[in-house]
Amino acid sequence: MRFHAVQLPLFRLSRYLIVSAGLLAMIFSTACGVSNSSFSQRPTPPTVADVALATAAGSTTPLVLLFVGTGTSSGDVTATKTILSDLNLSYATATSSQLNGMSESTLKTYKLFLMPGGNAITISQNLSSTTKTNLRNAIVNDGLHYLGICAGAFFAGHSGVYSYLDLTPSGVWFNYYADEFKGIHKEAVEVKGADGKTLDQYWEDGPQLSGWGSIVAKYPDGTPAVVESSSGKGWVILCAVHPEATASWRTGMTFTTSVATDNAYAETLVTDALNGISLTHY
Fold it and tell me: Phi and psi (nearest 5°) for 133?
């Protein structure tokens, strides 16, 4: 069972509890970024343990720490690795247990923490409260940057139930994009950027990001699909869709934007998140 939490204010809770069995089934079966695809073999990136050994020997810590732990989608992890490799960025990977073993001082040696798609609840449940505090402190107090894709965007928000990172100072929780409540779980969706460009992006059970940050891109209904803002000293970009998606994810869907164009947008998000650069926003 794979789903994202939607934390509701008390005055709305009773209305949402009265739903049909079909809607309940829809909500509790949703996932973000579960598609899988095959790729050519690439060099295996170092784990945090490898990085620790290399650092002790005088080598430089990679720029990016990519989370690959429990709750992430293997397909999205692979797609994200491809984007990082195409950018020639040095990166390390961390499983849940490896991240749980990292201190705040170790986390802040990286420049960007990248949380890919998957299941935000499962991700959170397999990270200790100390780990989440360390990660939040590394971002807010030490200037580690954060890029969250789909589940990674959910995880950056607030949830008093599932203990997310709460990088939104006003305690903003993110609801699903409206098509989720129409029984749609994946589709090609038009995302219009503040720069005037419209891209068809792969969407799968992703959030809409109302209530926090500057809006970089919008869904067709006007709700935010990509947002950015500082969180303390850290720079945070959240993306509710999957610009890193490969051609195999598009089976049965019609896109007007090429995979290469969408992937180039993913590269822009990574580059600007890494360097703390603001994208064009509304």
Answer: -65, -45
Show the 3-state SS of 48-77: HHHHHHHHHCCCCCCCEEEECCCCECHHHH
Between CA 47 and CA 208 the distance in angstroms is 32
Spatial distance between the Cα atoms of 164 and 121, rounded to a whole number of angstroms: 8
* Beta bridge pairs of residue 145: 112
Q: What percent of the chain has pLDDT over 90?
A: 77
pTM equals: 0.83
With beta carbons less than 8 A apart as the criterion, state whether 203 and 153 touch.
no
222-230 contacts at long range (C-beta below 8 A, 24 or more positions apart): 223/177, 223/178, 225/177, 225/189, 225/191, 225/201, 226/191, 226/193, 226/269, 226/279, 228/272, 228/278, 228/279, 228/281
Structural domains in the chain, CATH included, are 10-275 (3.40.50.880)
Nearest to 244 by CA among 271, 218, 256, 262: 262
pLDDT in tens, 79-119: 999 999 999 999 999 999 999 999 999 999 999 999 999 99
Phi, psi of 89 (to 5 degrees): -95, 135
Token pair recorded at residue 39? 């790729």
SS3 123: helix
